[in-house]
């Protein structure tokens, strides 16, 4: 998997233009960095420091995708 910069470079070299998305309807779930920090602090203070330590992957998105 190559970086977006390399992909864009190859695309511009080949077609003389760059196209970011296939259909123009791409969306992402953006979250404010301070909200992410609050989640990390919450886990550190409650879940991760308790006697029953748990690990895992946690989704900290907003649940609302925004198109761009």
Helix content: 25-40%
Computed Rg: 19 Å
Question: H/E element string?
Answer: HEHE
Give unreliable regions as ranges: none
Query: Oligomeric status of the shown chains?
Result: single chain
Q: Could you say which structural class the secondary elements and strand pairing correspond to? A: mainly alpha
> Could you say which overall geometry the principal axes of the C-alpha atoms support?
elongated
Largest beta-sheet details: 2 strands, antiparallel
Quote the average pLDDT: 81
Number of strands: 2
Roughly how many Å apart are the termini?
23 Å
Strand order of the largest sheet: 1-2
**Percent range for β-strand residues:** 5-15%
Number of helices: 2
Describe the structure.
The protein is mostly helical and 68 residues long. It is 40% helix and 6% strand. The protein has two helices and two strands; from the N terminus they run H-E-H-E. The chain has helices at 4-15, 33-47, and strands at residues 27-28, 66-67. The chain has a two-stranded antiparallel sheet. The radius of gyration is 19 Å and the shape is elongated. The mean pLDDT is 81.
């Amino acid at each position: 998997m190559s970086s977006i910069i390399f992909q864009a470079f190859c695309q511009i070299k080949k077609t003389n233009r760059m196209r970011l998305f296939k259909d123009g309807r791409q969306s992402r779930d953006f979250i404010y960095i301070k909200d992410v920090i609050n989640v990390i602090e919450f886990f550190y203070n409650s879940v991760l420091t308790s006697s029953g330590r748990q690990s895992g992957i946690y989704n900290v998105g907003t649940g609302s995708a925004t198109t761009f």
